[in-house]
Every structure is written in C-alpha cells, then in structure tokens.
Amino acid sequence: MSLSEHQAASLSAETVVVAAGRPPRERDQPVNPPITLSSTYFGTGPLGDGDRGYGRYSNPTWDPFEEALGQLEGSTLPGLLYASGLAAVSSALSLIPAGGVLVMPSHSYSGSLVMASELAQKGFIELRTVDIADTDAVKEAIAPGGPSGRPAAMLWLESPTNPMLGIADMRALADAAHAAGAIVVTDNTFSTPLVQQPLLLGSDVVLHSVTKYLAGHSDVVLGALVTSSPEIRSELLHHRIIHGGIAGPFEAWLALRGLRTLALRVERSQASAMLLAERLAAHPAIESIRFPGLATDPGHDRARDQMKGFGSIICIQVAATSRLSGADAADKLVQALDLWLPATSLGGVESLIERRRRHTAEPASVPENLVRLSVGIENLEDLWADLEQALKALDG
Ligand SMILES: *Cc1c(COP(=O)(O)O)cnc(C)c1O
User: Fold this and answer.
1) Which one of the listed residues 212, 240, 290, 356 is annotated catalytic?
2) What is the pLDDT of residues 5-51, one digit of tens each?
3) In this structure, are residues 43 and 227 in contact, taking their beta carbons and an 8 Å threshold?
4) Residues 6 or more apart from 361 whose CB is under 8 A from it?
5) What's the pLDDT tens digit per position in 214-271?
C-alpha cells in the first residue's frame, strides 16, 4: 500500500501528501482507501503480530494516514493515530517512569499543561515548567535538581508555543536532554511536518493534534504520534490498545482526505499570515505582535534556521483605548469581525480568531488582551479588509 522506501525518500513532501497511502495499483482497485467499519476480524488460533484481531488493536482505515504521516515526519515507521491530540499527549506522557521529571514549556498547549499538572499533583511525576525560548533555563531544568534531585526523564517541546509563539532552539535542547538521559517529545501541531521536522532536529517523538492543520477542515478531532524508534513505538502502541484512545474509522478517513491538500493550504495560509502580520505590526490599535516571520520578532533567527516558513498563527495584543481596557478592546475586535470566525481552535481552511484568556485553563501569564489569529486560505485582501474595519470600530 505504501510508496516504496526509495520513492518516499526521493519525493518532496508536497507530493507525499497526495501520493502516500494509496491502495495497490491493481485493476478495479479504488484509488482511495475505503472506510472499514468492523469491530472484529475473522481469525482462529493464536494472534500473531500481523493479525488485526479486534477493532481496538487496529483498523485498515488508520493505516494510510499513519504511513503518510510517518513519511512526512522523516520516520521509516508509520505514525499512530489517536482519538484526539490529548489522547496522544496522554500516551506520550506514559513514557515517563513513576516519579520521573518532566520539563515542559510554561506556555505549552493548556490541555497538555493541565494533564501534566494533575499527574504531578497526584505524585506520579515531578513537573518543571520553564520558558522554552530561554535555552540556559531549560538546560538548568533538565539537570539534576528539584525535590527528587533527579535529572529530567522527558523534555517536552512546543515551538512555536501556544499561544505566546516562543521559539525553542530545538537541536540544542534535544542534545542537552539526551546527554541527561531524557527522551524528547515535540508537539508539532502549529508547524506541520511541511514546515518543521522535529525528528530530524533530534526529537524522539513528534505529536500532532490532527484536528488542526493535518485534517484541516475543522470537522474532526484526532491526534497522532510519530517516532523513529521501534521500541518507543511498540510502547506507545501498547498504551493505545490498553488505554483505548483509538480513532474512529470515519475520522481517520476524513484526516487522509484533508491531508491531500495540506501543502496547498500551508503555502497559502503562511503567505497570507506573513503579509497580515506586517500590516498588523504597523497598525496603531495593536500594542504588540508576535509572529516569527517578522524580522523584529525575538524568535525570528531561530525560526528561520529550523523551520521552512513561519506558520500561520499570529498573536496580537490589542491596545487599550480611551474608553476600553485592552481585554475589552480585544473582545470588541473579535465581535466586530464579519468574515473571521470567532471560535477556538486553529489550522482549518477558515480563519479563526479568539481572545485566549476567555479560557479559564489558560495560564495567567498569557496577557488578558492577547488575541490569537489562525490564518486560513481565504483571499488575503478580504481578510485584511475585515480586520481593518473591526480595528477601526474600536475608536467609535
Ligand atoms: C489543539 C491542540 C492540542 C490538543 O489536541 P486535541 O485534538 O484538541 O485533543 C495539543 N497541542 C496543541 C498545540 C494544540 O493546538
């Protein structure tokens, strides 16, 4: 079913998203993999490695997406699909031994932070949160210390972070973590493998909320993990089977359908994000902006070094007006938009916008007036015209 290894190595990612995971080229085979709706499979005698067995162990509808994502992330092994990004986070965190130290960005995705904090509160792990853009601080957090005196067992990377868009020096941090004996997991949701390939930058495991760019149409919730290590992959697969966070076949099918246009979507939304960021940066109603593509952004040089492009998430802080606090101005901006959809999430074809602190789980260090924009694939001038009229409405 998969492209041969030789083919996969020589094809560009823009081709792999279209060509990977096709059924065999045999007369009257469908060109697209079908959806298999079955909770069990025929079989007698002992179950071998290649046997499907039962619907929680495997489903043929998962395979094409898992193969394609593995290839895109530069692994020779297929990825693993999960019921959601957070089911994948749960599986990845299960790699930490009892009492082990987890070093995590203080501005990780809020759900990942909540899960890690709850594990720490119950005494299952020791959690150290750190500014992931501060390489020395991360190295210090990885080193032996804290209540247990232990070094890190796992370094969690997110770069750019959600929602502060901090950029980690991924190679240097992976080296430091490995020197301390830690495993490195990178949440690559914001970048997609087309923009950043964490396994090639030293990470051991890559995580995606497939809900976002990979599926790309805001119509499924799914997650995935990819690793190049057969040992880690079988540990994760065992966790998926026993904890049961498996993908529904229809969602898996939709994710593969979405993946087919990933390269086009990423190209368009990245180009639009760059131009919108430049215009927003020059607008008087914006107090500050984070977008790694801007030459003035603190993460710009690192991002240029380890990413192909700068993604399509922009964060702005809306300036207070004579009558409105920054947070109220941010709310008013979101409400005044006609085209941008006021909704959480990101990475879909439609442009989404939200004030992040509307979520109570968002860390208090995220400013009240911070608005996150996920740039979609609509016409750039239409997106800008809508933002401009809404920013103008803040004066009135
Ligand atoms: C959305 C998201 C998650 C969680 O994924 P779900 O599919 O919502 O469970 C994890 N990490 C990042 C960066 C995300 O944006």
Assistant:
1) 212
2) 656 668 999 999 999 999 999 999 999 999 999 999 999 999 888 89
3) no
4) 110, 111, 113, 114
5) 999 999 999 999 999 999 999 999 999 999 999 999 999 999 999 999 999 999 999 9
Q: Is the CB of 111 under 6 A from ligand 1?
A: yes
Distance in angstroms (rounded) separating the CA atoms of residues 324 and 355: 15
- For each of the domains in the chain, give its residue range(s) and CATH number, in order of start: 5-259 (3.40.640.10), 262-393 (3.90.1150.10)
Prior bond of 193 cis (ω within 30°):
no
Q: Which atom of ligand 1 is nearest to the CA of 89?
A: 10
With a 6 A CB cut-off, is 105 part of the ligand 1 pocket? no
156 lines ligand 1 (CB under 6 A): no
